[in-house]
Specification:
It is built from seven helices and three strands; from the N terminus they run αβααααββαα. By secondary structure, it is mostly helical. Strand 2 and strand 3 form a beta hairpin.
């Protein structure tokens, strides 16, 4: 489990080379605040929401995908209200990442397995300022440069498909069905 955040950092570092016209400046991280933000997301938006929905809907993978879709569309709507366009690649990454985290929760019945990569992502993602043409760009705009990166979107979608297959096999062996 301790290797999960380290592997996430390495993978993000390899895949997330910013385009040549984007400058990245790393600053002092906000470890504690980020941890509690992620912890709150995992408890409320994943564990509580999925647990409640699974009591009424006995379809774990469907619940997982619907919540992942709501998460991705929610980001799109939030930033759209702030007049920022979120690209399809970005939405694909957000959907895939959340679907993977939801499936990890279904598979292991514990938030720590989705909390670790979530915290690793946020640690890497939100401890830098991003500049294009010498001007700092907003958090919403950075989504298209980072989560909208073709390599990130493709990797996230591939990982989602693999995780979905893994959970389907576990569900067939009744690992998930017995806990719902």
């Amino acid at each position: 489990l301790m290797l999960l955040p380290i592997c996430s950092f390495v993978l993000l570092d390899v895949l997330n080379e910013p385009p040549l016209h984007v400058q990245v400046h790393t600053y002092r991280p906000k470890y504690v605040g980020q941890f509690f933000q992620v912890f709150n997301d995992e408890i409320l938006l994943r564990a509580a929401a999925m647990t409640v929905l699974l009591r009424w809907l006995p379809y774990p993978k469907t619940v997982s995908l619907v919540l992942a879709g709501i998460f991705a569309v929610g980001h799109h709507l939030f930033y759209h209200l702030h007049t920022m366009y979120i690209a399809l690649d970005t939405i694909t990454t957000l959907f895939s990442f959340n679907a993977i985290a939801n499936l990890l929760f279904l598979l292991f019945h514990h938030i720590v397995y989705s909390l670790a990569p979530h915290y690793a992502w946020n640690f890497y993602r939100f401890n830098s300022s991003y500049f294009v043409g010498g001007y700092e760009i907003s958090q919403g705009e950075t989504f298209n440069y980072i989560e909208g990166n073709g390599w990130i979107a493709t990797t996230a979608l591939t990982a989602f498909v693999l995780m979905y297959v893994l959970v389907s096999r576990a569900e067939d062996s009744e690992t998930i069905a017995s806990s719902a």
